[in-house]
Amino acid sequence: MAGLGYRAEMNDWQIASIDADFFEVAPENWIRRDRAPLYQLIDAGRPVRLHGVSLNLGGSAPIEHAFLNSVRELMHDLQAEYYSDHLAASGDAHQLYDLFPVPFTDREVIRISDRIRHVQDVLGTRIAVENTTYYTNIGDMSEVEFLMRVVERADCHILLDINNIVVNHKNHQLAGLQQFLDQVEMQRVTYMHVAGHEFDERFGLYIDTHSQGVETATREAALTLHQRYDIPILLEWDNDIPSLATINQQLSCLKTSISI
Q1: d(CA 194, CA 192)
Q2: Among 195, 215, 188, which Cα is nearest to 4's?
Q3: What are the b/e assignments for 105-122, b being 16+ CB within 10 Å?
Q4: Residue 98: pLDDT over 80
Q5: Global pTM value
Q6: CA angle 144, 147, 149 (to 5 degrees)
């Protein structure tokens, strides 16, 4: 099963021509807007999953109940079973719609898992948190150890981003992809993200741009997990959206079996 991140540039595409089994949208884009395009996806038998950017789980500002109530209403309206956000900060005094890392420390494990529990209490359902890219960070444990300790204490799910693991490994030469995956409790993973990234010579870093095709290693790792654990895969392509034919070719590659 392969999904696709839905973007405004796709509004003119014929739904029947998109080879995605389900779609993902940012709830922030639809809370106060006409949801007709999403209703069309659902009516065509393509479920919609919600993946947010502003929950600010890693921030220090209080969790916004008004926003969560809007998310809950949207989930009900779209019959969406999944809501996720990032294991990162996204702004306290002002919503920046960007992601900032949190230190990988025991103190942050407790603080952030408590915030996730609070969100789940308000929504009345478990959420998933996504492992994110980071370009600098501090802490006394590895990223995957931090992730697993947070989700176990919060008793929440994981949205496993394979591309983010690859980008972090390239930038920081820490845990390789398989080493990271070996430490993840796959029963907690709701689905996976795959995407492409680019090297930025200005910073000497790989940037998680979501503007390229999926690398072979990323695709094969996701396909292996799908075959072993039946975890769906979703393609993210947020910038420089290509043609429908290119998107369908990428989706087709996410449905191709490999030997394991």
Answers
A1: 7
A2: 195
A3: eeebbeebbebbebbbeb
A4: no
A5: 0.92
A6: 110
User: Reduced to 3 states, what is the DSSP secondary structure of residue 158?
Assistant: strand
- Alpha carbon distance 160, 239 (integer Å): 21
In terms of Cα–Cα distance, which of 159, 59, 50, 42 is closest to 112? 59
User: Which residue, chain included where needed, has tokens 């789940």?
Assistant: 120
Q: What is the mean pLDDT of the chain?
A: 90
- The β-bridge relationship of strands 157-161 and 83-86 is unpaired
Check if the beta carbon of residue 197 is closer than 8 Å to that of residue 208: yes
Using CA of residue 10, residue 97, residue 211, residue 213, what is the dihedral sign? Answer: negative
**Nearest-angstrom CA–CA distance, 95 and 98:** 8
Strands 128-130 and 83-86: parallel
Q: Residue 206: what residue type?
A: Y
